[in-house]
Amino acid sequence: SSTVVRIPVPGRTPPYSLAYVDLDDGPRVLAHVLGGPTDDPVPIGITVHLISPSADGDLQVEVQ
């Protein structure tokens, strides 16, 4: 599941994408999506790459 957040919240500049990601090792995580569309949610089933956490400690993934 994924969504595009368009509402401003402290410390975040909209729009930005969030997605639940099933990792190969089993856990499901909520992560910020980098390199994906900001107008539409990221399509379900695409491959993403887990990258280093942000400076705020948020998990991040990149669209392949």
Helices, by number, come to 0
Globally, the shape reads globular
How large a portion of the residues is in β-strands, by DSSP E?
35-45%
Residue-averaged pLDDT, rounded? 89
Textual characterization of the structure:
The protein has 64 residues and is mostly beta strands. 0% of the residues lie in helices and 41% in strands. The chain is built from no helices and five strands. It has strands at 2-5, 16-22, 28-34, 48-51, 60-63. Strands 1-2-3-5-4 form a five-stranded mixed β-sheet, with no helix packed on it. The mean pLDDT is 89.
What's the helix and strand layout?
Layout: E1 2-5, E2 16-22, E3 28-34, E4 48-51, E5 60-63
Parallel strand pairs: 3-5
Antiparallel strand pairs: 1-2, 2-3, 4-5
